[in-house]
Amino acid sequence: MSAGGKRAADVLLSARRAGRLHHAILLYGADLGELEDVAKTVAREILASENLAKNPDFFELRPEGKARNIRIGTDSDRVGGEWPPNSMRWLLHVLRESAHGDRGKVTIIYEADRMNIPTANAFLKTLEEPPRDTTMFLLTQRPNDLLDTIKSRCVQMRVDCQPRPLDDEEWRAWLDSYVSWIKFLSAGAHRGRIAEAFMRGYALVNSFNALLTRLSDESSDLAEDKLDDMSEELVEALLSSERRSLRKRMLMQIEDVTVSAALESYPSVSASRRLSRAVAALEKCAAFMELNMADAAAFEYFMLSSLKIWSAKV
Questions:
Q1: Could you tell me the fold of the domain covering 3-158?
Q2: Fewest CB within a 10 Å sphere: which of 95, 103, 201, 203?
Q3: How does pLDDT run across 208-249, given as a tens digit for each residue?
Q4: What pLDDT digit, counting tens, does each position of 71-100 carry?
Q5: Coil, helix or strand for 130?
């Protein structure tokens, strides 16, 4: 946990020990994994449990499906009268039941901004009349996308954290190749060698997607014994969340090295103009990915935009 995450956890733990911890805490920041660490640190003390996954009074709710929404749960989804797991109505039902232990209940809602209007409205009623001895953590990287009525009923805490840089030899080599490609274009070496410029760009697209997949698989925190107890939809949701977090870290590092390469390769005025366009293209690429465009297609858009930006004479 970073220094910012530790500070946030310490503040919440102090409030807990003083009996002043609010029933609903909205944690927001750049790194979803860091927000999770903060929430689980506090949850472990509340429940006096190191193994939250096996604690019957600890619950998690995540977005799932192709649209990556937190689903509300419908009557047609019910099996044997039970609400489907990992749905808002399931969560609200289990929170209203009596706790198994004497320390209350804790829930974490991941990517809370992924609640649609019906789901958010259903949850809002619980925020207004919270179950006794229940602590709810809402985690988000996009707090402005949450309903104001939800935010106003939570204690909001910004966790000062940035996605941790990736320490992978193949990824560092990719970044070096990307910088080399920018310098190749900026020096005008591509003129008369357009095919080479395109081939190098597309090689970077392909290797980026392969690296994203490999690093996502290798960094997964999902243990095999944990997977056995999960539905296919929830497993897919967890893996998708991990991939999104990793992807964001990679794009941030790309932005960092792009800035360095531009400043080394162009006069200050030209560098500033090109950088603003390149960063805008990268942000648009990230937005496409958030809208579930295939990662390779979204990144191809960024690389083609970059080719135009860095090879233009003006």
A1: Rossmann fold (3.40.50)
A2: 203
A3: 999 998 888 776 654 444 545 556 666 666 777 778 878 888
A4: 887 766 666 667 888 888 999 989 988 888
A5: coil
φ, ψ at 159 (rounded to 5°): -100, 115
DSSP state of 263: H
Q: What distance in Å separates the CA atoms of residue 208 and residue 159, rounded to the nearest whole number?
A: 29
DSSP codes joined into one string, 52-97: GGG-TTEEEE--BTTTTBB----GGG-BTTBPPSSSHHHHHHHHHS
Burial 20-31 (b: 16+ CB within 10 A, else e): ebbbbbbbbbbb
Best CA proximity match to 232, nearest among 54, 59, 64: 64
* pTM, full prediction: 0.67
Reported as type and span, the H/E element at residue 136 is strand 134-140
Helical pair 194-219 and 295-311, crossing angle rounded to 10 deg = 140
Q: Which residue has the tokens 């009074």?
A: 57
Phi and psi angles of residue 219, each rounded to the nearest 5 degrees, phi first:
-95, 0
Question: Tokens representing 196?
Answer: 């080479």
pLDDT score for 80? 65
H helix or E strand, kind and range, residue 28: strand 24-28
Q: Six-digit token pair at 178? A: 């990307």
The domain limits of the chain are 3-158, 169-311
Could you identify the residue written with the tokens 């003006």? 314
SS3 (DSSP) at 105: strand
Q: Which uninterrupted H or E stretch holds 158? A: strand 155-158
> CA-CA distance, 246 to 252, in Å (whole number)?
10
At 12, list the tokens. 């919440």
Give the helix ranges, DSSP H, for the chain: 3-17, 32-47, 88-96, 117-128, 148-151, 169-186, 194-219, 224-227, 232-265, 268-290, 295-311
Segment 109-126 shows an average pLDDT of: 90
